[in-house]
Amino acid sequence: MSRPEIKVPPPGPKSQEIISKDNELIMQSFARWYPFVAKRGQGVWLEDLDGNKYLDFNSGIGVTNVGHAHPRVVQAIKDQAEKLLHYSLTDFLYETPVRLAEKLVKITPGSFPKKVFYTNSGAESIEAAIKVARGHFRGARPYIIAFAGSFHGRTMGALSLTASKPVQRRGFAPLVPGVVHVPYPYCYRCPFRQKYPDCNLWCVDYIEEWVLKKYVPPEEVAAIVFEPIAGEGGYIVPPPEFFRRLKELADKYGILLVDDEVQAGIGRTGKWFAIEHWGVEPDLIAIAKGIASGLPLGALVGRREIMNLPPGSHASTFGGNPVSCAAAIAALEVIEEEKLLENTTRVGEHAMKRLNEMKEEIPAIGDVRGKGLMIGVELIKQDGSPNPELLRKTLDIAFKSGLLVIGAGLSTIRIAPPLIITKEEMDVGLDILYNSIRKALQETP
């Protein structure tokens, strides 16, 4: 086992040069947590331009699930690149997308026949889901229900579903019409000010009683789009019965369920897809991030009878790129052969135990939640309100101590390391995180 090594206080001089040029040349429409400049990665470790070595607790935002530069994935990329880089799957045919589709229809929930559409990103997978859902009903159902607090992407259709931070939507109206938002089941901060389980899952009843019976005709709703665990919104895990009740409601009115597994899928929670924890089979599943271990690729997998848009109505020049598909096949094989689902569950349970022990000791840790290696640690003020300043200080101190970890929601630490991480490596990171929170508390009023 290795450990982080900080040779030069970050960001060092080489990193600072790139930071300056990045600021000058690249549109700064994204918010970075701290100035880490990556040079190379191997397994769960990353190195910056100045030779500092870091433990990775975010996997490139849930992308490098099998670790950085896994030899099997790298070799698959090399082999495919020597044969064919591109020839547009939506106009012609080649083998790797078909081989990958064979795997995807097997590992996604549901024993029913399925089809796959390839994209380049999570946002594009959501865009495809919107079109497939509305197109399936041939325009008869224009409405889509999404959840406040969820994130589905920043392209205009996906952004119309996104509702995790105002800055993501500010200045871009009008967005795609027909999207109705309802509260996400955030039990730690229930938007209805109720307590689970006494609430009897009012968050589901609300959809029927106050949306479908008041102002949105249920026969005009095409789909309910959800994240099985709200990622950007704060790594929020719904209560056990929530998705079963949501499925019952959707079936009652013939509404499709669209499962956004962009961040939670491909083994992140110890299952191939997070919705499997609830035993519900969605009609459509949006996939991206971890599917190709770092190469741009997304997919929409759905019931065959729903994936029936007419020829010419939707396509993607780069979707299903042969090199990305080869990387994805290799990544899925690694997860299977190296038993990473089992490792994710085992190491995730160990991390949750340690984090809950920290919670007992540190009052500023208000909530610990998650499944597998998708874990959120919510930091709070003395009055129980979110503490974004403490979050930022904690992450900055952790960065300067050799741990790369970022936030979600208003004040939640999001822990999402590569699925290959060992218990020993997890303990190294948790030790740094513990010390970082303690030190940040000394510096935060």
How would you describe this structure in keywords?
445 residues; alpha/beta; Aspartate Aminotransferase, domain 1; 7-stranded mixed sheet; 4-stranded mixed sheet; 12 helices; globular
CA-based gyration radius: 22 Å
% residues in beta strands: 15-25%
Helix content: 25-40%
Give the uncertain stretches in residue-range form: none
Taking the sheet with the most strands, its summary is:
7 strands, mixed
Overall spatial form: globular
Could you provide a short overview of the structure?
With 445 residues, the protein is α/β, with parallel strands linked by helices. It is 35% helix and 16% strand. Its cofactor is pyridoxal 5'-phosphate.
Secondary structure blueprint with pairings:
Layout: H1 13-25, E1 38-42, E2 45-48, E3 53-56, H2 59-62, H3 71-81, H4 95-107, E4 114-119, H5 122-136, E5 143-148, H6 156-161, E6 179-183, H7 202-212, E7 221-226, H8 242-253, E8 256-260, E9 284-287, E10 298-303, H9 322-337, H10 340-361, E11 365-371, E12 374-379, H11 388-400, E13 403-404, E14 406-408, E15 412-415, H12 423-443
Parallel strand pairs: 3-13, 5-6, 5-7, 7-8, 8-9
Antiparallel strand pairs: 1-2, 2-3, 4-10, 9-10, 11-12, 12-15, 14-15
Helix pairs in contact: 3-9, 4-9, 10-12, 11-12
Describe what you observe in this structure:
- By secondary structure, this protein is an alpha/beta fold.
- The protein has two domains: 13-66 and 339-443, Aspartate Aminotransferase, domain 1 (Alpha-Beta Complex); 74-337, 3-Layer(aba) Sandwich (Aspartate Aminotransferase, domain 2).
- The chain contains twelve helices and 15 strands.
- The protein has helices at 13-25, 59-62, 71-81, 95-107, 122-136, 156-161, 202-212, 242-253, 322-337, 340-361, 388-400, 423-443, and strands at 38-42, 45-48, 53-56, 114-119, 143-148, 179-183, 221-226, 256-260, 284-287, 298-303, 365-371, 374-379, 403-404, 406-408, 412-415.
- The strands form three sheets. It has a seven-stranded mixed beta sheet, sandwiched between helices.
- A hairpin with a 2-residue loop joins strand 11 (365-371) and strand 12 (374-379).
- The mean pLDDT is 97.
